[in-house]
Amino acid sequence: MRVFPTDMRGLVLLGLLVPLGVSAQDRPVVSKEISVGRAEASLKLEFSDTGGLEIVFDAGEVRIDGTPAGSYEPGDDLDREWRSLLGKAVALDDGPLGALLRDWAPPETLDAESRTLAETLDASLEAALTVEQADPRNASSAVRVESEGALMEVLLGRSQNLVGLAQAISDLSLSDVRLVVDEDFDLEAGETLSGTLIVVEGQVRIAGTLDGDLVVVEGNVDVPEGGHITGDLRLANAHLHTHDGVVDGDIVDALSHDSRGEDDLRDRLRSELRREIMESVNVDRREKRSFFSGIFGGVFRAVGSLVGDVLKLLILAVIGAVALAFAGPNMALVSETARAAPGRAAMVGLAGVVLMGPVWVVGIVALAVSIVGIPVMIAWIPLFPLAALAALIMGYLAVSRNVGEWLADNRFPYTEWIVRANPVYTMAAGLMALSLAWFAIDALYVLGGLGKVFQVLLGIVGVAVTTAATLVGFGAVLLTRGGRQREYYATADFDAGAEWKEVDDEERSDA
After folding, report:
1. Mean pLDDT calculated for residue range 226-245
2. Which residue range(s) make up the domain with 209?
3. Is the pLDDT of residue 464 over 90?
């Protein structure tokens, strides 16, 4: 039997039950070795006089100090009684251990052959433990297990036990637990045990006082007169034979599951184990990263975000420069219209954004109803969204040019480099001005959590500014049909605008 340490988080919460009221021994035990497995249950004692005693139950044969003493049937009453004795002896040393072994007596339920062998064992223990020997103050003890997974094999090898145990202890306090597996347990009258007792595949008799809860999985329970359980009695595929004693809590049959419950429990156990293993593997890595992340994480994020925004700005500036080179008069007319009537342009731009989707869909439907329109529809599907995107960018660049000219006219600090007569300079300056809120958000990443509130406020400002500039510019593009038709007379001293105004006046006088 494998004994694991108590774990508040887990299901396997072990410790072996120890009896109360032991007496002194005559022969000091300086070490013990107990092995309990499926096929073997052995006890080896060493005394201060270098003498010793070894009793081995192994695959139906009993050996005392290497000499065969008799035979037994694995799992019979003698085998179970011997395993129960070893279970109690695990937690004891020296005097209490000797008293337990010396006071052991064969149970009355054994048959004649088993009883003869049990009396031989009892006599061997009595003879080995009643000789006076040296001072036992340096006594030591060790517990050996048959294999790494001995106890887990008992539990996991019987899935109904595991599921029943999980359901039975689901809401119990697990701060003080004793677990007995594949053994009987007997709490004698007058004895008291505190804490939760869990017995898996064993016969349980509570004639004394159990100050806590009792959970029995695959076993039988007797609470005779005088027995007292202060907590609950949980039964999982177990039977309550007698109940003449007192159970203060509830008596509950906790086993309620189907075949899927076993699979679900195994999956949860695997997931929990995998999670804990991954956390233990990565804990050092997280600790190493935490120092650098705390100091430099904000700086790295700020630099990365700033680089991204600068690249976007450069792309827009390049597009603007190309547009000025190949469609300078159109851009000038859109800028003039956006400056002369920003309110009207914004309303038209908002309407255009709202109707953009429906117009695209209506165009597809209208072209699809005619055979002639199908080739045009094939071009309409990708080209209309691209044209709408180009109009949005063109309008935004036109408004950026107006902002840059406004900065040049007002001569703000650090704007001396803006040449008003050069539309490339004014457009670039306007793009930077419209992006100031986003640049400030990037810089605040250095402060980490301290800058989050200001980042939210600046984000609202940035969205509002970008949306307003886009709607005004898009409306101006729609009003001027992409800068090809004049809607308003220029109010600024544009060279190109003045030239167009003279042309319009001449056309009006001719008309």
Report:
1. 86
2. 158-253
3. yes
